[in-house]
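Supplementary notes for students who missed Thursday's class. We covered one full example, reproduced here. Read the sequence, then the structure, then the short commentary at the end.
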Amino acid sequence: MLTSPAAFPNKSDVFVVCLRWLLRKVGGAVFVLWAVATAIFFAIRMIPGDPAEAIMGGPGSQASPEALAAARAQYGLDLPLHVQYFSQLRRLATGDMGTSYSLKSPVSEVLVELVPSTLTLAVLALLVAWTMALLLAVVSTRSGAVGSSVASGLEIVSAAVPHFWLASVLIMVFSTLLGWLPPVSTSTPAGLVLPVATLALPLAGFLGQVMRDTMGEAQRSAFALSARARGESEIGVLLRHSLRHAALPGIALSGWALGSLLSGAVVVESIFARPGLGRSLLSAVTSRDIPLVTGVALLSSAAYIVIMALSDIAERIADPRIATQ
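Structure (token representation):
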């Protein structure tokens, strides 16, 4: 039900609400980043093995005990654990993520090289998922009970499909049998199709379920009946009223969705041999590259926080009543 104009607070109240929202977001972001850095620090050290071996090139490097001791001293790995922990927190607070053990380069430079590839993959997958979800919602809403049941079945199957299984099927069909698309992700548009589809299809099924239910409720609502009574066509009601209401839950879920896509990129980039944050994170965990694991985890967490904040702002713009809550 729409709130009457008299119920809206004045500008000073809106400013206070926005300031509280901003302080909550900043405080929450600081806490989350600290928690992620702490969890990664202790989790990596629980993995069996010597980090000094990773610095020297792995267990197969046959490094001498003197060389391993020198590596531990150079990176501070010979210090007590709590000293290493607080030293890392101080470095991270100043923006220093350290040097990658395996790549021998500053982690910040490595991340700058990897971010565009993963971000392109995730954003394209989100756009494709949004488009498919909206089309499914519109078609199923206008095609009656049978169309809605078929769309619901497709959405459930799509949302339940694991990324690794879907990637294998797409490679077998479109690369091995038909030969239309490369099985390895390249910088060309054709090389992006299969990785984007692997990430987008499960997400489209999930978003489509939410949007279709909301669109159906909007089509049966009082404002839709009122619009029809004023002579507005079904297409007009759909485009001017129902789509807006169907988009609201999708916008609210987009922040979570993009975070989910970043985690799904670990699987997709590994299967399609695509350079990016996900593939590098898997390699860094395997080689106990502590600075790179910490850098990727913190960057992913920061991106997730920013995306959730932007999603919150977009939701408030789409429905101004939320801005006063």
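Commentary. The radius of gyration is 25 Å. Residues 1-6 have pLDDT under 50 and may be disordered. If anything here is unclear, bring it to office hours.
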